[in-house]
Write a structure and sequence with these properties.
With 367 residues, the chain is α/β, with parallel strands linked by helices. Helix content is 20%, strand content 31%. The strands form 5 sheets. Strands 12, 13, 15, 16, 18, 20, 22, 23, 25, 26, 28 and 29 form a 12-stranded parallel beta sheet that branches. The chain has a 7-stranded mixed beta sheet with strand order 3-2-1-4-9-6-10. Strands 14-17-19-21-24-27 form a 6-stranded parallel beta sheet, with no helix packed on it. Helix 1 (33-44) links the parallel strand 1 and strand 2 (48-53). The structure holds guanosine-5'-diphosphate-alpha-D-mannose and magnesium ion. Guanosine-5'-diphosphate-alpha-D-mannose binds next to strand 1, strand 2 and strand 9. One of its GO terms (molecular function) is mannose-1-phosphate guanylyltransferase (GTP) activity.
Amino acid sequence: MKALLLIGGFGTRLRPLTFSKSKPCIEFINKPILLYQIEALKKVGVVRIILAVGNIPEDFRTTVEEWRNTYNIDIVFSVEETPMGTAGPLALAADLLNEDLPGEKNPDVVFMFNSDILCEFPLQPLLEYHLSHGHEGTLMTTPVEDPSRFGVIVSREDGSIDAFIEKPKEYVGNHINAGLYCLNRSVVNYVPEAVKTSIERETFPHMANLRQLYSFPLDGFWMDVGKPDDFIDGAQTMMEYLDDLGHLHLPISPHALVSGLVDVSESAEVSPGAALGPNVVVGENVIIGPHARLKNCCIMAGSTIGAGAVVDHSIVGWGSTVHQWARVKNSVLGEDVRVHPELDVVGCKVMPHVEVKGDIRDEVVLY
Ligand code: GDD
Ligand code: MG
């Protein structure tokens, strides 16, 4: 089995974080976003993962090299000179998909994911269902309140897809394409040329007409962490899931006060009297000063939160310092930002390497 991950775009909505790190490498609950997908694919038995990208930033290349070694899995880039959309990458990677690898099980099966999606990745049941119906494609579906921003799927009773309507203008249903597919590699034949093609607007509607497309309901949560608010709120959902599995880390002194779910890196130092939670993620080598108050926030590796400082509903980028008694709320700080003592930073995005010397509110701070 192989996989193709669609990694287009520049992660603009996660700026200023994506000025310092590629989106797939940004840590979500202390693990790079893309690694959730890669670990799930490894677990189900995928032996080659193709990353469909427009370019390869240096940090991404290095990180992928590490994953390749750690997970002992063939991870290769398929680079598009011009954007190929969501189906063109299948044609571009046809040779990589068609090659049979030593010891590969189900060589005809290709998992294909939108890279901006996180869930429990129940890939084994998806695979079993896909093999059981014997047709060319299976899409995972999830119900949402506002389906207009997604691809909507109308299925028949036997699970076959009657219609696939991308970004419908009128209500046709609320079961949407979750962006996770299990396909036979023959699907490449529907995209004969490596040109910009939409899998949602062209390939899937065509396959549905041929009755080759089936749907499979996704169990558990489903989220997109591409925007700061979703990133922060999504952390709570993901931590609930990880907590059920006993996978959250809390190696801190009994003097710190913890409420709700938190994940603290082993190498972080949390001072006595600091209060964490709910929904707090503390990265590697972070220092939390005495009586600091953190809730609904993510503190990236190497940052320092001073004594009595407050961080609420915010993301603090790598190596930043929020000095004592400062208050950071509803904000995203880039890498290496310094907030001077006692200041208020509210509703702001602060670019990397900025020194904040006065109170700021509802601003994008460039320097
Ligand atoms: N390699 C590559 N090249 N990837 C691309 C390109 C491209 O030209 N264009 C988009 N992608 C990637 C994006 O990075 C993302 O991972 C995925 O393809 C889907 O593109 P989005 O731009 O995120 O689409 P969307 O969120 O509006 O809609 C898609 O996702 C929904 C679920 O979140 C569709 O697949 C919908 O049907 C679906 O419901
Ligand atoms: Mg998307």
